[in-house]
Design a protein that fits this description.
The protein is α/β, with parallel strands linked by helices. The protein has helices at about 25-30, 45-60, 85-95, 110-120, 135-140, 180-195, 195-205, 210-215, 215-235, 250-255, 265-280, 290-300, 315-320; strands at about 5, 15-20, 40-45, 65-70, 100-105, 125-130, 145-150, 155-160, 165-170, 325, 330-340, 340-345. Strand 10 (about 325) and strand 11 (about 330-340) form a beta hairpin. It binds nicotinamide-adenine-dinucleotide and glycine.
């Protein structure tokens, strides 16, 4: 089984990401290797609960753990500050102590909010990530960014808080909707764009979900390795790590502007990558033709490439202003030099002047 170890020299933090088909059948065995306490709270959403939680609970109880499951509604609307009191109360009612454990079982929404609850409950309690969407398996479960959204914007409250262990079972991807699978592909394509020309080219050769699944172990391991290397060198997102947010400033703005109802994270990122790439290409910062290659690949993997309503683009600007990469009037944007190479560009909001048509003008 591929095992990647994420290590941070500055801290005593080190954890493994294990990737294996069928890993969900051995959760208690894997947990035993990293956790010696008695109680485990699983946080999941209704969809994942119905599909996977029961057998995991059975397995953990058979290994003598006391288990409680906290089930939240599915979707981005759950990842808000207002959902936290319910989680904290459920953890307290279960009598969870600092020597116990929380498991985040679900997609990026569950991973992010559970990780934040774990970082703050009793000033920090250990947690394990079991990501069940492609997006969470290749991105959100790795690197320790946890948090929640505010009405004012996406991920505005959060922490860097690493899991004890990440268990990735690619078999669970079989039950994703096509749309949720495509969301994950947006992040996979992002990795190709920012760091890995070979990955990008391999993805152009895969035209169906079935074909992607035939190479899924390799795809997940490739993406996780890229993320592992980047976060190890820049844990707190002060430099190199920012390139992981290619397309995300606009993506987050799109999600928030439509109140997390019209576009998912993956769709926002896809549209954001195209718009930023177009703008950068028009400024000769990105090699000509890069955006067209990106558009072709996104469409091949059933992702949107522009907002349905072009008139909405300027309305994203107030949300871009609130981005965490915006400080003191200066904004860091991630642009592609060409496919497989990204760079950080220090600019101002005026960079987005041609956004009114999604950078298509
Ligand atoms: P999600 O967690 O909402 O999951 C999408 C849908 O898939 C949900 O309805 C869920 O119930 C369902 N689902 C999950 N696993 C399933 C399975 N195996 N079978 C069937 N259905 C399943 O969304 P997501 O796309 O996983 O995550 C998006 C979130 O991740 C966003 O909030 C984004 O900000 C965050 N994110 C965080 C990081 C990070 O570094 N922390 C990185 C990227 C994205
Ligand atoms: N998803 C961006 C990061 O983890 O930094």
């Amino acid at each position: 089984m591929p095992v990647l170890t994420v290590k941070f020299p500055s801290q005593e933090v080190r954890y493994e990401l294990k990737i294996e088909k069928g890993l969900l059948n051995h959760v208690s065995h894997e947990v035993k290797n990293v956790f010696t306490g008695a109680k485990i709270a699983i946080v999941t959403d209704e969809t994942v609960y119905a599909l996977y939680a029961k057998s995991i609970i059975k397995d953990l109880e058979a290994a003598d753990y006391k288990v409680q499951c906290i089930v939240l509604p599915p979707g981005e609307q759950t990842k808000t500050f207002d959902s936290l009191p319910h989680i904290y109360s459920a953890l307290a009612d279960f009598g969870l102590t600092r020597s116990d454990l929380i498991i985040a079982l679900g997609g990026g929404v569950i991973g992010d909010i559970t990780g934040f609850a774990a970082s703050s409950y009793l000033r920090g309690i250990s947690f394990v990530q079991i990501p069940t969407t492609l997006l969470a398996q290749v991105d959100s479960s790795v690197g320790g960014k946890v948090g929640v959204d505010l009405p004012e914007g996406k991920n505005l409250v959060g922490a860097f808080y690493h899991p004890l262990l990440v268990l990735i079972d690619p078999l669970v991807l079989e039950t994703l909707t096509d749309s949720a699978f495509a969301d994950g592909m947006a992040e996979v394509i992002k990795y190709g764009c920012i760091k890995d020309l070979n990955l990008f080219h391999r993805l152009t050769e895969l035209s169906s979900r079935k074909e992607v699944m035939q190479h899924i172990d390799w795809i997940i391991e490739t993406c996780c390795t890229i993320k592992q290397v980047i976060v190890q060198t820049d844990e707190k997102d002060l430099g190199e790590r920012m390139i992981l947010n290619f397309g995300h400033t606009l993506g987050h703005a799109i999600e928030a502007y439509y109140q997390y109802e019209k576009y998912t994270h993956g769709q926002g990122v896809a549209i954001g990558m195209v718009a930023i790439s177009r703008i950068a290409e028009s400024k000769q910062m990105t090699t000509d033709g890069t955006t067209d290659q990106l558009i072709t690949l996104l469409q091949q993997h059933r992702l949107p490439i522009a907002l349905e309503d072009l008139e909405d683009y300027p309305k994203l600007l107030p949300y871009i202003k609130k981005d965490k990469k915006n400080s003191g009037g200066s904004l860091s944007v991630i642009v592609l030099v060409d496919v497989g190479r990204a760079t950080l560009h220090q600019t101002t909001l005026s960079f987005f002047d041609s956004l009114d048509t999604g950078g298509t003008a």
